[in-house]
Amino acid sequence: MSDYEIRVKGRLEGDHWSQWFGGLTVTPGNDETILRGPVIDQAALFGVLNVIRDLGLTLIALYQINT
């Protein structure tokens, strides 16, 4: 399991978004949203990325966080 930070363009507000992204913490900013938290494996990471694609969001950055 690894922690990730994923930045997408646009502002996602509301608590319900966390469920869409596998329980990642969703933090809206000015012009982007930060998704952050543990991802169990690579398949789960691809699942999150597929949701981003399916929602038509633009991926800005993906970082693996060393903890």
* E-strand count: 4
Strand order of the largest sheet: 2-3-1-4
Structural class: alpha+beta
Q: Helicity, in percent? A: 25-40%
Assembly type of the chains comes to single chain
Structure explained in plain terms:
The chain is α+β, with helices and mostly antiparallel strands and 67 residues long. The chain has a domain at 1-6 and 34-67. It is 25% helix and 40% strand. It contains 2 helices and 4 strands. It has helices at 17-20, 42-54, and strands at 2-9, 25-28, 32-39, 59-65. A 4-stranded antiparallel sheet has the order 2-3-1-4, with helices on one face. A hairpin with a 3-residue loop joins strand 2 (25-28) and strand 3. The model has no long low-confidence stretch (mean pLDDT 93).
In short:
With 67 residues, the chain is an alpha+beta fold. The protein has a domain of 40 residues.
Which secondary structure elements does this structure contain, and how are they paired or packed?
Layout lengths: L1 E8 L7 H4 L4 E4 L3 E8 L2 H13 L4 E7 L2
Antiparallel strand pairs: 1-3, 1-4, 2-3
Which key features would you list for this structure?
4 strands, 67 residues, 4-stranded antiparallel sheet, alpha+beta
